[in-house]
Amino acid sequence: MTGTDEAAVEGDDALYVLTAVLLTPAKFPSVLGDDYPEACAALGLAPLAEGYGLVLGQDAQGARWTVVVDDVSLVAVAIASWDCGMEYDLSPDENSMVAALPGWPLALAVSAPGVPEPHDPEPDPEYDDQAPLTPPDTETWGPAQRRLGADEIALQWAVWREQLDDSQFATESDAEAPQEGDDAEAGPTGSHAGIRRVLTEVRGYVDAPPPLGRVRSAFASGDSRTLRADGPGWSMVARTDDIAFVLLDEEPGEVLPVGRGRELPGLLEALDKMAVRPT
Fold first, then answer.
1. What distance in Å separates the CA atoms of residue 82 and residue 85, rounded to the nearest whole number?
2. Which of 40, 191, 249, 254: CA 20 to 30 A from 144?
3. Is 193 exposed, middle or buried (0-12, 13-18, 19+ CB in 10 A)?
4. Alpha helices per DSSP H over the chain
5. What is the DSSP annotation of 183-227?
6. Rounded distance, CA 91 to CA 126, Å?
7. Roughly how many angstroms between the first and final C-alpha of the chain, as a whole number?
């Protein structure tokens, strides 16, 4: 998160920059979709291979705006600087601007000083009276909340992992088919149809690559990677040297662990080879 930079647009259209995020095949706001093309479509953008930078800020009247730029490197440097606690004046060139969208797709807890409180801009015929972007409703469980939950697990992996005793959940191979006598109260055992469905679909990704960004790989620690896979109604987060967690639309707030077993290591390795990685 940055301080406030007046830079994205100059003059009467000055934008007080609050933060920025990347919209690329390897890294995009998961609230927007299960994959990169879906995330782009949510903003009315073509899924360019190079991706975009999203600059979120307020105008002089306090209205929320999301400025889309094609200078991905500039936005990436700004984000990296802010993450290190350094100041960085994010000033995209006007020629790099692709679109100015009313509203914010993400919830921000900050606002620009010296201007009115954040609010949606008035409808403007120049933008075909486009409805302002809004963050997802966090009070209702759905695809966006499921993906946000997976984001949190990936970010706080150690915290979630420490809560588990490996003997308390089934291995990936156990989840392939129901076993006689399974107890539904014992947690995500082999009788869990949701886990079996997710693992089947993930295996399918290895044979027939899904839309770009549905499987992503990021640095974890040592030689391991954090894998993220999403699909219709589900999200999976895993470490290549450890277990996986599954979240389902039909099970609000539930986090279902899947142990390594005999097959999960090979599946994760195959997914990592085909996954999109940050450049």
1. 5
2. 191
3. exposed
4. 36-42, 72-83, 143-155, 157-162, 193-207, 264-274
5. -GGGSS-TT-HHHHHHHHHHHHHHHS--STTSEEEEE-STT-EEE
6. 24
7. 21
Which of 248, 246, 236, 247 has its CA nearest to residue 272? 236
Model-level pTM? 0.85
64 within 8 A of 135, measured Cβ to Cβ: no
Q: For residue 23, what are the CA distances in angstroms to 49, 68, 238, 276?
A: 10, 9, 22, 13
CB distance 54 to 26 below 8 Å: no
If pLDDT is split at 50, 70 and 90, which confidence band does 174 have?
low
Tell me, rounded to whole angstroms, the distance of Cα 137 from its chain centroid. 16
- Beta strand 215-219 with 225-231: parallel, antiparallel or unpaired? antiparallel
Report the share of the chain in percent with pLDDT over 70. 85
64 beta partners: 58
DSSP string computed for 134-170:
----TTS-SHHHHHHHHHHHHHTHHHHHHT--GGGS-
